[in-house]
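Posting for a labmate who doesn't have an account.
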Amino acid sequence: MEEEARNFINVWLTVLACVGYCYFVSSKLPPGRLRLFSLLPVFSLFAALPLRLSTVLPTGVTAFFVTWLASFKLLLFSFDRGPLSSVPGSHPDPSKSLFLFILFACFPVKIRQAQDYPSPQTPKLPLNFPSKLLLFGTSILVHDHRDKLLLQAHPKLVLLLYSCMLYLFVDMIMGLSNAAARAVLGVELQMPSDEPYLSTSLQDFWGRRWNLTVTNALRHTVYRPLKSFLEPRLGATWPAAAAAVMAAFLVSGLMHELLYYYMVRARPTWEVTGFFVLQGACVVVEVVAKWAAGERWRLSRAVATPLTVGFVAATAMWLFFPQLIRNGADVRAIKECKALVQLLKPKF
């Protein structure tokens, strides 16, 4: 464990050095091919760094923050776009600007903009950070006693428990990043998610509620550029938008496949890619159905929310979790959570 801690520190020191290089060298080059070329070594290093870790959660979080999100932000930065092209709160003091550049490059935070896609107004459930932490701890206890609770005899219930744990873990990690950045910057940041368990459609779930940091990254790096490229060539907005949606979900699937490889070090099975391609296809079908049905499409929230959340959970049980379970990553991740809790527990 001590060796893993040293590796983790060394990985993140390397990340900080790379981001410093981007700030001092790449930012001085004109946007375009030259700046992009100067960032290629950073992209390669960011793709290799998670391989230096062996535990599931630190590897997954590092790959998610660095290999995926930071790389996508730097890709936008190479063309003078995205949050790094004009670091918020720029300051005459270079060290201040460098700090902000590192913060926005390395962590999944984004200043809330008026044009951010808000979800429809819905009743709010009191799932603040303490309640999420309590639910996550309870879910670990339930997993530990799954035999006594007869969950082991019902594998689908275990997978449903994993769905809840995944939401809570991702939201807590992203929420902690947001809380730290908000304390430093003193500005309102985009929330990591917006109560996805209240989604009324797949478009609502994936586009406006679940993991908004990833949604924003894919919107700016895949969806909008491809849609703009295809519209004049296809001569219509709808086919270009549908193709861009499918491309964004495909890229998300491939990035998840890469994250899985870092965590389990096993040959990809492409199940998780299939999960996201399926979600993308269903989103396209849903949007077409809404357009064709008009006002007749509207379902009551009491019907639409269980259908939406149930579909996402059922397809996740089928395609999202099996590869992790097959390689024992789920059990290892839970053990790591418990070890972290023991480490942070006050000593009396």
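Reply:
Got it, the structure tokens are right above this. Residues 155-185 form the longest helix (31 residues).
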